[in-house]
Amino acid sequence: MAVKDLFERLKERPGPLGRFARQLHGYYAFPQLEGPIGNRMYFRGKEVIVWSINNYLGLANHPEVRETDAKAAAEWGLAYPMGARMMTGETKYHIQLENELAEFVKRPAGLLLNYGYQGIMSIIPALLDRRDVVIYDAESHASIVDGVHLHKGKRMAYPHNDIEALEKQLKRAVEHVKRTGGAILVVTEGVFGMSGNQGRLKEIVALKEKYPFRLLIDDAHGFGTMGPTGAGTDEEQGVQEGVDLYFATFAKAMASIGAFIAGPPEVINYLRYNIRSQIFAKSLPLPIVIGNLKRLELLRSKPELREKLWQVVRSLQSGLKEFGFNIGTTSSPVTPVYLSGSMEEAAGLVADLRENYGIFVSGVMYPVIPKGQIILRLIPTAVHTQEDIDETLKAFSEVREKLATKYYVKEPVVTFNV
C-alpha cells in the first residue's frame, strides 16, 4: 500500500465543517463584528442587534471593568508573570482569585485555569486512570467529549438528561469497576449551551444514595446567571453539597478569559500538581487575573445586573412563545428557536436577518444538526433593551413567513455564494 502524503489527505478529507468552508467562511463562520461589545454592533458596515455574544451580565464594557483592565495593563503589562505557575508564574492575585471563587460557589478550595475548553478537557483524564469509568451526557459540550476521549479506561454515554438510562450505565459501571478495582465519575453540564436545558442535577445527586460515584459539572452558562446569588445551577437546584466538583469558565457571565474548578482541598491540590495543561502552560497574565477579580466583585455586589438579565430573558422568551415560536424546554437564558428547512434555506434566512432586518443571530444547521432542522440560538444579556426584543420578534415573524413560502429557495438574499 502506498504511503499517503499527509497534506494531500487533508485536501481530500477537510472534515465535516471544513468541506463547507468556501460557502461559510467570513459570513456564517468566522464573521467579523465591529465596534464596542454590546447589544448593537456593526457587521459589514451595518448596525445590527447582536444576539450571539455570551456577555450575559453586560460586563464586557462595564465602566468599572474597563477602568480596572486598563490600569492593570498599564501597571503590569501582558507579560507578567512569566512562566508556568508551578515554576515562576505564581502571584498573590492568582491565589486571591482562586480563594474568592471557591468561597462564592461554597467550596473549600479552587484552582484557576487558563481556558475553559482546555480546562475541562484536561481535568477529566487527570482525575482518572485506565481502571476507572467515566459516564457523560451525550449532549455534553465538545470540550467534555474531547476530555472523555483522552481517558484511557471505560467510557459510557447516556441520552441527554435521561436519568433512567444513566442509572443503567451506573449499574454497568459498578460491575466493571468491581473487576478492575477502579472508580466512577459522572460528568454533565449545569446548563446545556445549545438547548438551554438544565442538567438534572437533583436526580443525578439522588442516585449517589444507590451507586458509588463522584459528580463533576461544567457550569459555563450557569455560573453568574443561575441561582439566588448567581453561584450556579447547582445552587439553583439546591444540590451544591451533592456536586463534588464544580467547573465554570469566565467567558460567559464574566466576559473574560480563564476558568476554575472548585471542590475538596485534597482533590484540588491533586489537580494542581497533575493537570498537565496547567503545569506546562504559562500563567494567566496579571491584568486578566486582576480584571477577573473586579468582575467577580461586581457579580457578587450588583445583583441588579442578574435581575436585568432575567427581565430580558423573560420578555424575549415569553414574546417568542406568544408569537408561536418553538423554543424547546429551555430553563436558562440560552434561547433556541427551532425551525425546519434545508441548509440553503437556513443560510438564506440568517442572511436575510442580518442584511435586511439588522438582526445578528447565529444559525445552527447541518452538519452540526440533522438535515431539515434549523436552530436560531439567541443569547440575551443585561444590556439588551425592550426595543431590541420588539424589533427581533417582528423580524422573526416575517422571515418565518418567507420560510413557509419557500422564499429562500427562490430568492438569493446575498450576492456571494451561500
Describe this structure in words.
With 418 residues, the protein is an alpha/beta fold. The chain has 2 domains: 10-60 and 303-410, Aspartate Aminotransferase, domain 1, CATH 3.90.1150; 77-301, 3-Layer(aba) Sandwich (Aspartate Aminotransferase, domain 2). 42% of the residues lie in helices and 15% in strands. It has 16 helices and 14 strands. It has helices at residues 6-12, 21-24, 63-76, 92-104, 116-127, 142-150, 163-180, 201-206, 233-236, 265-274, 276-279, 286-301, 303-322, 343-356, 386-404, 407-410; strands at 33-34, 40-43, 46-50, 109-113, 133-137, 154-158, 184-189, 214-218, 245-249, 259-263, 335-340, 359-360, 362-364, 373-378. The strands form 3 sheets. A 7-stranded mixed β-sheet has the order 4-10-9-8-7-5-6, with helices on both faces. Helix 6 links the parallel strand 5 (133-137) and strand 6. The two termini are 39 Å apart.
Provide the descriptors you would attach to this structure in a database record.
four-stranded mixed beta sheet; seven-stranded mixed beta sheet; Aspartate Aminotransferase, domain 1; Aspartate Aminotransferase, domain 2; alpha/beta; 418 residues; 42% helix; single chain; 16 helices; 14 strands
What's the order of the H and E elements?
HHEEEHHEHEHEHEHEHEEHHHHEHEEEHH
* % residues in beta strands: 15-25%
Q: Regarding CATH, which class of the largest domain?
A: Alpha Beta
Q: What shape does the CA trace take?
A: globular
CATH architecture of the largest domain: 3-Layer(aba) Sandwich
In what order do the strands lie side by side in the largest sheet? 4-10-9-8-7-5-6
Low-confidence stretches: none
Q: Write down how many β-strands occur, each being a DSSP E stretch of 2 or more residues.
A: 14
What is the radius of gyration computed over CA atoms, rounded to a whole number of angstroms? Answer: 22 Å
CATH third-level topology of the largest domain: Aspartate Aminotransferase, domain 2
Estimate the helix proportion, in percent: 40-55%
CATH superfamily of the largest domain: Type I PLP-dependent aspartate aminotransferase-like (Major domain)
Main β sheet profile: 7 strands, mixed
Separation, N- and C-terminal Cα atoms: 39 Å
Alpha-beta classification: alpha/beta
Mean pLDDT: 94
DSSP helical segment count: 16
Whole-number tally of structural domains: 2
